[in-house]
What does this fold into?
Amino acid sequence: MRMTNYHTHTTRCKHAVNTDEEYVQAAIEAGYQVFGFADHCPWPYKNGFASNIRMDVEQLDEYLESIARLKKKYASQITLYAGLECEYYPDYMDWLKKTLAEKPIDYVIFGSHHDLTDDGGMYFGGSNKPEHVRLYTQRTIEGMRTGVFAYLAHPDLVMRGYHQFDDTCVEMAYAICRTAKEMDMPLEYNLTGVENKRLTGLRWKGIGYPDDHFWQIAAELKCTAIIGLDSHRADHVLETRDYEDAVAYLDGLGIHRVDTIRMNPAAAG
Ligand SMILES: [Zn+2]
Ligand SMILES: [Zn+2]
It folds into this structure.
């Protein structure tokens, strides 16, 4: 069975460790055939805001060059990609589209982390009221509908801070899964979430993700799933047990799993 991952971070995001090459070497050792980087997207903030959870715009070319170098160096052993994990920030979507047309960015995945911008917008992982869940639902669907994103990362992120899978969460799951189905967009089963629930779950205020209720609804609506590591350290890539468990879990739900994603046409070749 092919092992693929399109969700890996680098130190440029200021909350990951290890060199780009160490991630690649770990991926080869773990047995991945396809391994994509999707570091947190830089945004050209107005008012000079500097985010401490993503690379700066000036680092984007160096990031892409570093992965391009590794693609060549390890071409006989593994297929590598250079993507980005981006939010839906309406004010900056034109910038993102222009950047995708101009630079060799292989794909963009959607991490619906913040409302409108992280320069003051709420962090959806801290949601603890029904209105937060509703806002997450609304913004996530708006973002999915832009058609820019290859897949939705941790679609159940909102459960990180939320205490139970109540009626508002049921509505959230149906709305997001219906949109994913309509847009033919895979939903990511996030293995950093799996690890966090297992090791540091108590640090989270909510029930965490991936959440079983959410995935049962995804299966019921016949959505497609994709496994994503979301690694922020190279040794996480070596934890293949979680990957195997995820395959078994998703198979058990009868949900169709994909291992290819929609690439940025401008980056082809
Ligand atoms: Zn991160
Ligand atoms: Zn991520």
Notes: The pocket of zinc ion (ligand 1) is lined by residues 9, 13, 15, 40, 232 (CB under 6 Å). The chain has a mean pLDDT of 96. The longest strand covers residues 79-86. The CA atoms of residues 44 and 151 lie 23 Å apart.
